[in-house]
What we know:
single chain, globular, 2 strands, alpha+beta
Amino acid sequence: YPVISIDELKSSGCELLLLSSEPFPFQQKHMDELQQYLPSTKIMLADGEMFSWYGSRLINAPSYFTELRNKLK
Length: 73
């Protein structure tokens, strides 16, 4: 799996960081910790099944992506 350091994240200038529940189960505590290092970055938890699982979950993906996008507004 890809690995990125805090320093790389800081220097990237990323505006949004999605923490996926798959394959690593990121939780609120991880989001809170990263927010301390990246105070100007919006950090959100995302349902990794919608991004990386195929099959029956795909039927729910469009509405999930719309909901996620609306949270960014």
